[in-house]
Amino acid sequence: MRIAILALEGMFDTGLTTVLDALTTANTLAQWTGITTPGFDITLMGVRPQVRTALGLQVPVCDIADTPVPDWVVVPALADIVPERLLPTLVRDDVVDALDVLRRWHGAGAHLAAACTGTFVLAESGLLAGCEATTTWWLTPVFRQRYPDVCLDAHRIVVPSGVMVTAGAALSHLDLALWLIRNNSPELAALVAKYLVFDSRLSQSGYVISDHLIHSDPLIERFDRWVRERLDTTLAIDSIAEALGTSKRTLSRRLDGVLGKTPVEYIQDLRIERAIHLLKTSKYSVDQIAGQVGYAEGVTLRTLLRRRLGKGIRELRPRE
What we know:
By secondary structure, this protein is an alpha/beta fold. It is built from 15 helices and eleven strands.
């Protein structure tokens, strides 16, 4: 499998090295253990002759013009993690040239992958239009506003969609690399995960700090505050809208526009957030925690955590 890693100036160092380390570890373990796999031919590609990471390390890139079309192109994250810095970077000359390369390689049959803020580069090319995707959780509102034609599911860590695959925030680069390895050999991917001491994760919801997402809309900010103060009660959307001086329809539309969620889904997020906090910081039983986040029975909370995070109570509660 020929994999080209598209190296852009100012990329996230850990994103680049995580993908490289995972794939080269897969090659080493396959040879050592005798696992039958085609292996990974990895090339670092650049649209400029010299590329440096965000921490100033020079990346030994090859010229794209001299390289055959790869099977997969991986776009690691840019280190610009706030919108004020990321959005101007997307129109930088080298990034614009990289978009042309992505379109050309895609037209020639290459599959495309990106993680964290690299998903913005992929979306900027227009190739994600109509596809499902994920992105880094704290930039979800910006992604939705900039790319409304992408079906964003920011809960999931890895989202394959046709010939595209995207991954969530920061260390989701490793989830992405393991997904690529798993497509080649599930046995090898499991072995690489063990050697890298890595537990699989299905969702980035457990890492989301909802306060970071709500400040772009005053109504959503008030909705968030109102719900947090009453999480241990039964909440009706009509009553919440009335208390906030708006309509259920307007509240739903504003939440969908910024966060891509219904009011019920957002309330569930807040219940999960508080439940996880209590699981990690208190000795309360599951039934007691369920009551504090608005559920009558612990089994309801268990089911929701398993469905949304892919984890059970034992995995979330710290070991003593």
